[in-house]
Amino acid sequence: MKHLAFLNKYFYKYKWWIIPGIFFVIISNIFGVVPAQVVGHAINIITENISIYSLFNGFDRQEIVYSIFSYSLFFFGLLILALYLLRGLFLFFMRQTIILMSRHIEYDMKNEIYAHYQELSLGFYRRNNTGDLMNRATEDVNRVRMYVGPAIMYAINTAVLFCLIIYFMFSVNVKLALFCLLPLPVLVITIYYVNTLINLKSEKIQAQLSKLSSFVQERFSGIRVIKSYVREAHNQEIFANESQIYKHNAMGLVKIQALFYPSMLLLVGLSTILTVFIGGKQVIEGAITPGNIAEFIVYVNQLTFPVTMLGWVTTLIQRAAASQKRINEFLQLKPDIISSNTTTQIIEGKISFKDVSFTYPDTGITALKNINFDLEKGQFIAIIGRTGSGKSTLANLIMRMYDVDSGAILIDEQELKTINLNNYRNQIGFVPQEVFLFSDTIKNNIAFGLSTVTDEEVERAATNAAVYNNIINFEKKFETMLGERGITLSGGQKQRVSIARALIKEPKILIFDDCLSAVDTKTEEEILNNLGRIMLGKTSIIVAHRISTIKNADKIIVLDQGMIIEQGTHQELLNKAGMYAEMYDNQLLEEENR
Ligand SMILES: Nc1ncnc2c1ncn2[C@@H]1O[C@H](COP(=O)(O)OP(=O)(O)OP(=O)(O)O)[C@@H](O)[C@H]1O
């Protein structure tokens, strides 16, 4: 429950919704309870008038008694109608304030969570799966909303109604009130117990449903593999088994629900019978009027709904507390990467690594060891090495996706940790190894890093990334939709759109993380030529596997098992006859054999 205290700030923010809300709950309940007394009076009038009416048997006055009698009944009917209309009006206001407040809180929470998620570093996203992140921002927030809205509303409603009804019952007759309320604790306990059971079953069903949806989602994403390996029947079998578990759980829930409502009605019926029986005796003894019995029956029936709600509200609160705990777990996480500097500066592009080592915290893999190199402004540096040698890690460290464990990275002689990170990243064009394009138009994908952009700029970037001709061959050209709602680009086209996205920023530092692997050598040459022109005087870092890509670099760094084993120009490295020369020979041999 302590986790729900997090929400108090929202209650404070929306106090002018919740305070009138409580007021409307009280008023609507008063208008809901008073009709019971009116019914009581009406019944009393009926019993009294029937005897008066029979007294005038055979007299003309009987007609007058009859019309007065029907007139007063009509009046009571109208009064009850008016009271219920007023109750309805205030119920409307109650929902308009409390439920509306819950929607405001839901909106605020979602924004708060989304903003916080965005602040968290890359490591956080590695540790947690996307499904979990999404669940906390949607399903869990929804459960918390059920607490700040309906649960609170029904809890206040039940409490107010309870107090009012108990007050009126006891003020009429203590004995009858006690007997009427006798089955109520049993009802509360039964409802609580059954509700817990229903919740357990629902949770199981929900979990199974999530499992089923993830299974379907994954299998349909990999449909090509399934078809090529002819595993349709096998997958169908797994799906049918999982569905069977879901069906079994759902049927268990139906059984409990089917038993729930009849047993509840049975207990309410018991209360009514007790009211009539004990009430009847009290009438005979002259302690109450027959109208009071009718009044009590209305009370008992009015209590049923709130009591049922009580069990429901308890589970809503329990669920909300569990969800808020999960939300808080993430909200309390501090970003690993902190940048407190807010001054903006133009990056020149000098990069130095001073004895940098880095170990991935989650796997304990030491990806880089004692890295030292200097890169002057305007240089073109290439990084090469076997797979897993630490190339991408090095690129990520320059982007400050992670902080180094020891040593320092200097940008323009200033330690990277002390530089305004957003301002710094804004001046870098980074093309990651795993290309990611959004389900949006090609134009918006290219213009992603900029707030305002012209068509000419987009087209120029596409030309420089050697993808312009591909794009204009699509029917909708730059307005072509990508992803699930649109077309699928080839691997090489995706890489080039991703390169255009980096180039349009006119970055001070350009980082290509092995993003030319799916591009043919001729196109690669075209892109590199363009880069030579665009990046003139600016710094470029290219991670590559093909030596043809990097042989014109000012400096080539050869990584192996996280360490720099060689560095120099293409010619210098060939002269060394080390690993680089070996890689070069192998690649030449491969080309000749093709
Ligand atoms: N996010 C991560 N969390 C934990 N370990 C990682 C992570 N990324 C990479 N590693 C590990 O760090 C080492 C270096 O990986 P890195 O991706 O930098 O290599 P690479 O040279 O870019 O390889 P490739 O050429 O195959 O892309 C590898 O052993 C890898 O398993």
- Helicity level, as a percent range? 55-70%
- How are the strands ordered across the major sheet? 6-7-8-3-9-10
Spans of at least 5 consecutive residues whose pLDDT stays below 50 are: none
Strand element count = 10
At CATH level 3, the topology of the domain at 351-593 is Rossmann fold
Q: SS-based structural class? A: alpha/beta
Chemical compounds bound to the protein: adenosine-5'-triphosphate
Q: CA-to-CA gap between the ends?
A: 68 Å
CATH superfamily of the domain at 351-593: P-loop containing nucleotide triphosphate hydrolases
**What characterizes the major β-sheet?**
6 strands, mixed
Strand content: 5-15%
Q: Mean of the pLDDT scores?
A: 89
Subcellular location: Cell membrane
Protein name: ATP-binding cassette, subfamily B
GO molecular function, one term: ABC-type oligopeptide transporter activity
Membrane topology: Multi-pass membrane protein
Description:
With 594 residues, the chain is α/β, with parallel strands linked by helices. Helix content is 66%, strand content 10%. It has helices at residues 8-13, 15-55, 61-119, 122-127, 130-137, 139-172, 174-181, 183-221, 223-228, 232-285, 290-331, 391-398, 421-426, 442-446, 455-464, 468-472, 491-503, 521-534, 547-550, 570-576, 579-593; strands at 351-359, 366-375, 380-385, 406-411, 414-415, 428-431, 509-513, 539-543, 555-560, 563-568. It has a six-stranded mixed β-sheet, sandwiched between helices. It has a four-stranded antiparallel β-sheet with strand order 2-1-4-5, covered by helices on one side. Helix 8 packs parallel to helix 11 (290-331) and helix 15 (455-464) crosses helix 17 (491-503). It is elongated and about 130 Å long. GO terms for molecular function: ABC-type oligopeptide transporter activity; ATP binding; ATP hydrolysis activity. InterPro entries: AAA+_ATPase, ABC1_TM_dom, ABC1_TM_sf, ABC_transporter-like_ATP-bd, ABC_transporter-like_CS, P-loop_NTPase, Type_1_exporter. Residues 21-319 form the ABC transmembrane type-1 domain. This is ATP-binding cassette, subfamily B.
